[in-house]
Design a protein that fits this description.
three-stranded mixed beta sheet; 12 helices; alpha/beta; Spore Coat Polysaccharide Biosynthesis Protein SpsA, Chain A; seven-stranded mixed beta sheet; 10 strands
């Protein structure tokens, strides 16, 4: 089997808390032909010190004038892919860790099953009640092509679809790229192995702030993908219904997850309103 180089792009911004565990999980992959590219936005903590120790390429986009003032990892991901040398590219987050066979699974799907892009399901963990609620929520999305989106791509396919739309952020960029792949008939597969999203000491306040910021950009995705956006942003998602047993087995977490989603929904809604009223911001 051909063993192509896989370029893993990690956007960072004051990510020292999680970056060490993230990089260790990549270094410990069973598949070894990997290039690590960290694209940082002028971090003030030890992110650069940690990143430069392990990365094959370290890029500080804070010094790029066209990036200044942006709130999004989208630009960083695109920059990382452009700088990559691999035949396969995978954009990853600094607060995530990989099971040891993730890259191997992606290679098998691409090389042996002719996949053009690969979805890697996500799980969550953390130290708080809300982190456990987020874990339950993420598990509801496993296998849902309407919510999950690919993050690993054959590089020339990425280039054909134009990469991520830098006018969209907050998760809409992932969904938009997925829709472009589906429209053009590219083959999308899914790994059995999962990645773990470290929610840390997640609080409801952090979730509200995050959803508000994402909401400010949500309107851009809705305008571009209004048909798919209706189901993707609808508060009662299909995965909650098909995975109702998860809520019954853990009723306290189930109630907490429902409450968390309601709060996030309103925070995102206020973000959308703010974004509409401040279009030129």
């Amino acid at each position: 089997m051909h063993l192509p180089l896989v370029s893993i792009i990690i956007p960072t911004r004051n990510s020292a808390q999680f970056l060490g565990a993230c990089l260790t999980s990549i270094i410990n992959q069973s598949y070894k032909n990997i290039e690590i590219i960290i694209v940082d936005n002028s971090s003030k903590d030890k992110t650069q010190q940690i990143g430069k120790k392990y990365a094959d390429q370290f890029i500080d986009v804070g010094k790029i004038k066209s990036f200044q003032g942006r709130f999004s990892a989208t630009f960083q991901r695109n920059i990382g892919v452009k700088a990559s040398k691999g035949e396969i590219v995978y954009y990853f987050d600094a607060d995530m860790t990989m099971q040891k066979d993730i890259i191997q699974d992606c290679i098998k799907l691409i090389v042996q099953e002719n996949a053009d892009a690969v979805i890697i399901p996500e799980d969550a963990f953390g130290t708080t009640f809300w982190a456990k609620c987020k874990q339950l929520e993420r598990r509801c999305y496993w296998g849902d092509n309407n919510i999950e989106a690919p993050r690993c791509f054959v590089k020339n396919i990425w280039e054909k679809v134009g990469g991520l739309d830098e006018t969209i952020a907050g998760g809409g960029d992932d969904w938009d790229l997925h829709e472009k792949l589906k429209e053009l008939g590219f083959v999308i597969k899914r790994t059995k192995a999962i990645v773990l999203h470290n929610e840390g000491n997640l609080t409801l306040t952090k979730l509200v702030k995050k959803r508000f910021l994402y909401g400010k950009d949500t309107v851009k995705y809705i305008q571009k993908r209004n048909k798919t956006a209706i189901s993707q942003y609808f508060p009662i998602r299909k995965g909650f219904i098909t995975n109702w047993r998860l809520f019954i087995k853990q009723p306290i977490l189930g109630i907490g997850t429902i409450y968390m989603r309601i709060v996030e929904y309103f925070a995102g809604g206020f973000g959308i309103i703010y974004g509409i009223l401040n279009k030129n911001e």
